[in-house]
């Protein structure tokens, strides 16, 4: 065997081994993180998590944080879904290949990975500060402000999936409807959005998965509350915020509660992303 | 149908078409308004942080960027320490994540048996779905202690300039800078290096999935020609696939960098939150995002304004990085004719 050939073969073998190793390292860290979350989370699971509030400290549970998370996420999704779907529809149906449309599509992709803590500060400036001034300090941080911050993070996800899903709808459908004299707004609302429905729902679920683990934007908007809060104009705690607070606490029993919260959030997020993937793969099959 | 048309007086027809046109206009404005909210969110975030930071900018001027002071007692603030922490952790993250992601992408597109590719790719993408606070907790309770017990002693004793037994290793004595980088007498794991590693694990799925996707756009014809000429798998990956997808690969890397720069939770837990400028990667530090997360709720006056100014800097820098990322990614899409 000539030596350049041997060298090439060795280089190749080395590269193959290294790339396999890289994949194994990635998978190992995934397994390590999931395993610790499962192990520590399950050992901390307890009925009091769901029945007691955080005001009791280490003897308490996470009930108010769970309710708060549900409410804040609901507000976020309820705001982001209509706006995101309509904006995505505009990009796909009305502004495709126009200058403004292309720029907004481009900027939406940037918003998708913009730092979430800055979004929190933005909502702090436009909602928390004005309400503090207007109510002379009686209403400051609120669950609603937290919901708006999360909506800003969910928005680009929904815009993007709606845009992509609508562009997958075959143009024959549009042509058929338009040739029957259906106005374009009716075509969009009653035919196209319906045709892309499962894809759009997937986008909303993905957005929900994305925001349910967000912590940074909630710190200065919903703030936190050790008591049960249902009214969105009150300060509200959420699971990620309680995890953050408890993990920084020196007490071991607080850490156990934080792990339990981490377990609940991780399971919720993973189930959501698996579920949305399932919907998406099913629709792909039905389209083919 | 002429019979039908005759039954409809022309003014009704006209009314109907007017109504349709009105609805159409309203609908268009509604959709456009929603789309403009995306624009407003970006401009608003930049504007709000700039407005919030105006006091800091006007008080310290350009000095804010280069000053390492952060002293609430004397009300003097500078961005250097958190900016350094953000850049150092992101740089370490890229240094680790780029080669690993490239390896994963090559494995998944060229090496692995076909039946294995989709499940492994989905598993790696699962990593991207885990909330960042979980990375932070894992880093704080699992990885940082592991690092402090098993990796850090080796690093400080063999590379650093402050070893436990006082005897400098060969590397620390003869190679410049390395001793400073790994010298530390801080007893815990939380440090710039650990934060960089946790960030790397976080951005690996982003970078590798972009790389894998763009690798799949390389025409089979090109790869097969190279194989037919006797190229090895590695040569095809390095000399054919990578040059063809270069701009998109750089785009993917910048996308990961954008994530790393703005990440708050994963970093805050493992950075140690120390307002100090240390040459050592094993010493604790702080980043822009974690400084804001730690101090904002208790800050007021000039300190709050300085934090807002930091947020503005972070936003502008990530915006530019993400802008480059998207432009680079678009180049390949253009080439593809998409």
From TrEMBL, chain A:
It is found in: Cell inner membrane; Cell membrane. Keywords: Cell membrane, Membrane, Phosphate transport, Transmembrane, Transmembrane helix, Transport. Residues 66-276 form the ABC transmembrane type-1 domain. The chain crosses the membrane at residues 12-35, 70-94, 106-129, 141-159, 191-211, 256-280. This is Phosphate transport system permease protein PstA. It is a multi-pass membrane protein. InterPro entries: MetI-like, MetI-like_sf, Phosphate_PstA, Phosphate_transprt_permease. Belongs to the binding-protein-dependent transport system permease family. CysTW subfamily.
From TrEMBL, chain B:
PROSITE patterns: ABC_TM1. Residues 83-325 form the ABC transmembrane type-1 domain. Keywords: Cell inner membrane, Cell membrane, Membrane, Phosphate transport, Transmembrane, Transmembrane helix, Transport. The keyword Cell membrane applies. It is found in: Cell inner membrane; Cell membrane. It holds the Pfam family BPD_transp_1. Its main location: membrane. CDD domains: TM_PBP2. SUPFAM superfamilies: MetI-like. InterPro entries: MetI-like, MetI-like_sf, Phosphate_PstC, Phosphate_Transport_Permease. The keyword Membrane applies. Part of the binding-protein-dependent transport system for phosphate; probably responsible for the translocation of the substrate across the membrane. This is Phosphate transport system permease protein. The lineage of its organism: Bacteria, Pseudomonadati, Pseudomonadota, Gammaproteobacteria, Lysobacterales.
